[in-house]
């Protein structure tokens, strides 16, 4: 089976490519390297540099390569940036996906695995969050991902086209080989920010708020290892092939850890004291986000392997110690 992975040079995309190649799939990567890293693209994947908004690029690619399904990561994904540059997010995420889907239909490619997010829920009403819970995003990034999910539903009613949307909670960790890992510019995610402090790139970690109604006052998140997310994409491709129906799944470990607990885990794993400063809350941060992934477990047969925060942070640290991206 031959798969096109858009955004295969990015964080979750590159890990999915590694897992696909390990399982014997043929992989074609399309990435414009706007935020991705060429060093993260697996040597056995065929690489095309281009933007998914360019339908000529996509049409040519679909003509040159026999593609059975698409796994679509290419997007902008920084919540803060999405609030200050909303048009960039609608253009790259919503318009980009529209052009990809248009080209897929034109070229008779019927199955898409779409990279969605817990940000579609906004402030949750229930914990753990289930797929059918209320969706009211609190940021532009979440709005664009929800708009795409809705568009995919309409397209799948009108055309011979099926999709699975995977709503990730907090992706974390790095490949067990430590060859690929998480590197954003600017870096805003908690675990890499903490590890940059250990490496001396920052003096301290800012904790955004310790006055939430949680056990220690800091926000609680559901951290899920990037290689477990990668496995879920493979199961989602097989689900589409075997069932020919669209579906949506949450992907998380189902256990929440506070910001302070994550920093303590990083102290334990790295042996570094990690100084912190408490600042005011960051706008748009819900107090608690924890997934119910029982649907993915029962329907896809997904079983996360990296359930301990120590192991997740250890893989991230192994990568950060030797980071080789430019
Ligand atoms: N945090 C800090 N200090 C930092 C960075 C983060 O205290 O320097 C806190 C945040 O306030 C939050 C927690 O650590 O409470 C996790 O923050 P991240 O920025 O690592 O992740 P988010 O939960 O904000 O966002 C993640 C993904 C988004 C996705 C969202 C879904 O990065 O892409 O989950 O809710 F949209």
Count of strand segments: 14
Q: How much is the average pLDDT?
A: 97
Query: What structural class do the secondary elements suggest?
Result: alpha/beta
**Assembly category:** single chain
Sheet with most strands: 7 strands, parallel
Describe this structure in words.
The model has no long low-confidence stretch (mean pLDDT 97). It is globular, with a radius of gyration of 19 Å. It has helices at 11-22, 55-64, 79-84, 86-106, 140-158, 190-198, 226-243, 259-270, 294-300, 309-321, and strands spanning 2-6, 26-31, 46-49, 69-72, 111-117, 162-168, 170-172, 205-208, 220-221, 223-225, 247-251, 257-258, 276-279, 288-289. It contains ten helices and 14 strands. The protein is an alpha/beta fold. The strands form four sheets. A seven-stranded parallel β-sheet has the order 3-2-1-4-5-6-11, sandwiched between helices. Strands 12-9-14 form a three-stranded mixed β-sheet. Strands 7-10 form a two-stranded parallel ribbon. Helix content is 39%, strand content 18%. It binds uridine-5'-diphosphate-4-deoxy-4-fluoro-alpha-D-galactose (UFG). Uridine-5'-diphosphate-4-deoxy-4-fluoro-alpha-D-galactose (UFG) binds at residues 77, 79, 117-119, 141, 170, 188-190, 193, 205-208, 219, 221, 259, 282, 285, 289. The site of uridine-5'-diphosphate-4-deoxy-4-fluoro-alpha-D-galactose has 21 residues, from α6 and β8.
